[in-house]
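Residues determine shape. Next comes a sample protein:
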Amino acid sequence: MMRVKLAFFSFGLLLLTAGISLIVKGNLGAAPWDALAIGESQLFHLSIGMCIFINGCLLIIVNSILLSERIDFFAALSIFLIGMLVNFWISYGFINISPSGLLEQFSFTMIGIIMLGVGISIYLQARLPSSPMDTFMVALHKRFGLNLNNARLLTEAIAVTLAVIFQGAVGVGTFLVACTLGFVIHFFYPIMEKIYDRWTFN
């Protein structure tokens, strides 16, 4: 049971952070929360991963209020891993990858969106402390009765607004992520849930 949980959690994190980094590499605009982190990193001279971590810690507090639960300090571990993995993919894993034209930029962005959505759908199955950004989506889903797609759209709208304020990497790609990521998660989540249940009970 725990082996399956850790496998889903680890693979999901690797996939989603690779997706985030591909979107950044596409240079059409980062995913909303990452666009915010990029703006903050330029303003405060910190790494993108560190800004992702700080934003996540702030959202942990917001989530505890929305869900009327105690602060989930273990969630800080998930967002720390996500931040460090994003730093790894950008600085080492994809360091030599650079799109040569608009078509490649668009391809990087769309592939990144799919990887990000599938990665989120996978690692959430483990029900281990998840990224505060994803918990924020789930908190809105539970608190206000929104489906996952609409809850994701709302979280992305909030992040885009903050990214604009902090002069982050907002562009066409940002709005592609905001408009499509919720659909990708909404589509793949039940598929991954069935796979997880099958592996767990075998």
User: Anything to note?
Assistant: The two ends are 10 Å apart (CA to CA). The chain has one domain: 2-201.
